[in-house]
Amino acid sequence: MSAEAASPNGASPEIRPVDNPGRRRGRARIDLRRLGRAALFGPASRSGLPDAIGHVAEAHRAHFPDADLAVLRRAYVLAETSHRGQMRKSGEPYITHPLAVTLILAELGAETTTLTASLLHDTVEDTEVTLDQVREGFGDEVCYLVDGVTKLEKVDYGAAAEPETFRKMLVATGDDVRVMSIKLADRLHNMRTLGVMRPEKQARIAKVTSDVLIPLAERLGVQALKTELEDLVFAILHPAEYEITRALIAAQDAGADPLPTIAEDVRRVLREAGIAAEVLIRPRHFVSVHRVRMKRGELCPTDFGRLLVLVGEEADCYGVLGELHTCFTPVISEFKDFIASPKFNLYQSLHTAVASGGGDVAEVLIRTHLMHKIAEAGVVALGNPYVPLDGARSAVVPRAAVGTAEGERVDPSRPGWLSRLLEWQESAPDPDTFWSTLRADLAQDREITVFRADGGTLGLPAGASCVDAAYAQHGERAHSCIGARVNGRLATLSTVLSDGDTVQLLLAEDTMSGPSPDWLGHVRTPGARIAITGWLDAHPEGTAVPAAAPRSSVSATGGAMRRAAAGAVVAVPHATVRLAGCCTPVPPDAVTGFTVRGGAVTVHRAGCPSVARMLSLGRPPVEVNWGETGDCRVTLVAEAFGRPQLFADLTEAIATAGAAVVSATVEPPSEQRVRHTYTLQLPDAAGLPALMRTMRDVPGVYDVSRAQHPATA
Questions:
Q1: Measured over all CA atoms, what is the biggest interatomic distance in the chain, rounded to whole angstroms?
Q2: Of 66, 107, 125, 499, which one is the catalytic site residue?
Q3: Are 6 and 92 in contact (CB under 8 A)?
């Protein structure tokens, strides 16, 4: 039930932007602010209240000419009867509130079930009507919607009533997006009539609207509600800036406006090009003007509005764009294509800016009539999410929202951001955590899509890291995440992902391992933060990292060399065996050995230049055979065309093959070619051929060979 009310004397204290009829002429956006008490009742007295539903019916029939209005009239009769005797603070009958909410939704194009539920949305909360009665009279869908927007009682929940009500509402929205549509329209009417409330209560309600309801309206694409809510909140929370903006708009309305002239030039250009289009002037709302002023400092006359070009087909949008960029001077930095890449809230449009012959720069929005309807009404324009679309109705939904199977539609109540929200809210331990986390989550107003290695996609907020992707894909299994590949390259878990990246998460086999506290420094998603915090709270002692296999120190003549040489069996009893560093022999190379000072035997590959030199000096060879093989050391030379990131790609390929880099040398490039020399430790000599193939597959590499360079034996 709404405690907010309008002034009883008709001198409305509502906080409204300046309305200039001249600025509104030709405005294409759905104008909700003109709908007031007169639109509801006209000259009728209170005894004529039942006729008020006629205004809703008229607005509804404008979108659905064949709609069955009988159910709306029955819902109105029940609402008016059950609310009879209840008054708003203005002294008006309380029925004016559900009527206004329903009229807002009817203007947006909501279908009949939504309007029926909006008429009844306060009956269960504020009257003797029960959910069972609503279900019996109007069906399960209407009952679900009414229950979804019904507040929880403070008597039962105390201070947690508001956050828990929003939690309940969001969960209901996860099954049917129309729940939130009704809530947004309900809050808009309450904000319109907030003027009689105490200033501190106005501020509290406006702050919640700003932090929660406006971001939800943005994410659901209901721009017609979002923009007016923004202006009303702006007036309450920032009165000084609001008055400055109000004065600027009033001054501009009284002055010269170049936009009508530019609009007429655009109409002429499109008419000559044979493109049927409607060109309108779309004034900016108050918050939009304020943002432009904060960004640019001093405002130009064209900053108070934009041109809106509406066409019939998507192809015509690009035709209009071509004509404008040909006949006017385009501002290329202002071009954005939200048709090819729609926003996550279903918004589609082309944005550009052009300069007229007089030097005035005008921003232009280009979209089809259908795109415009969805840009204004968002998910409200999608109607009932449970009714498969036929050929005619499917045109209402942009291709980004249509399923792949014939006749199937993706449920608009489960966009990626909402699915994530519903997942993490289950883990929020208390109302305060849920409330603060919800506000932080909704403050992230941009979304990216990344691709998983298996071909699926993940929707993440902008700025999300590999840790966020890990928890989005694997849930609590992500506790054991040890790394990631982004676009095929090894990356740290703190790597920030970009739209379109491909990410592969690497998980440890040890499922008992846990996250590092450092991960909290680079997570953006509430689900990941709650999961990490929960694990750290449950394991204050930290993670017991399993002891790795002991590693001996590696040196040119130390234990690693002897371990590598252990597979080489020489015909000299008790001799120390060393593998030559000049050719780094590994099984199954053909090898030979020579006795050197101190009685040690150095093993060389048969083709090593050092072998020929030893034989020329008359040094007798020692027979060498390979016994049991294990880890080994080898030197490889990669020859490639020089390019950026070559060294990083080669070392990544080596790591992928399970080898460790002992040393690396990069020679200066010559004639665009470069030579890389790597000394590597392999866990098994049998993996050498595969390693060399992996290195050859790196772009730019044209040869990988074993090192052949002289060394003193």
A1: 125
A2: 125
A3: yes
Q: For residue 15, what are the CA distances in angstroms to 169, 193, 229?
A: 27, 8, 11
CA proximity to 364, closest of 321, 329, 427: 321
SS (H, E, C) 263-282: HHHHHHHHHHCCCCCEEEEE
pLDDT band per the 50, 70, 90 thresholds, residue 515: confident
* pLDDT > 70: percent of the chain: 77
> Which segment of 9-18, 93-102, 508-517 scores lowest on mean pLDDT?
9-18
* C-beta atoms surrounding 639 within 10 Å: 15
Q: Which residue has the higher pLDDT, 510 or 88?
A: 88
Q: How far apart are CA 669 and CA 652, in angstroms?
A: 21
Q: E strand or H helix at 668, and its extent?
A: none
For residues 436 and 683, the model is more confident at 683
Residue 403 confidence (pLDDT) above 70:
no
Q: Residue 196 has what DSSP assignment?
A: T
Tell me: cis bond preceding 588? Omega within 30 of 0 counts: yes
Report the interhelical angle of 314-327 vs 259-272 (nearest 10°): 110
Based on the residue annotation, tell me whether 125 is a catalytic residue of this protein. yes
pLDDT score at 362: 93
Catalytic pick among 126, 241, 253, 639: 126
Question: CB neighbours of 616 closer than 8 A, spacing ≥ 6?
Answer: none
Residues 613 and 183: their CA atoms lie apart, in Å, by 89
Tell me whether residue 639 is one of the annotated catalytic residues.
no
The amino acid at residue 432 is D
Q: Which residues contact 302 (CB under 8 A, 6 or more apart)?
A: 258, 259, 262, 360, 361, 362, 363
Nearest to 88 by CA among 141, 126, 121: 126
Confidence of residue 476 (pLDDT cuts 50, 70, 90): confident
Q: State the pLDDT at residue 410.
A: 43
Residue 420 has pLDDT above 80, yes or no: no
Tokens of 706: 């074993």
Strands in 632-641's sheet, in edge-to-edge order, are 660-666, 673-682, 632-641, 701-706
Structure token digits, residue 226: 């979002």
Q: What is the full DSSP assignment across 466-518? A: HHHHHHHHHGGGGGGEEEEEETTEEE-TTPBP-TT-EEEEEE-S-TT----GG
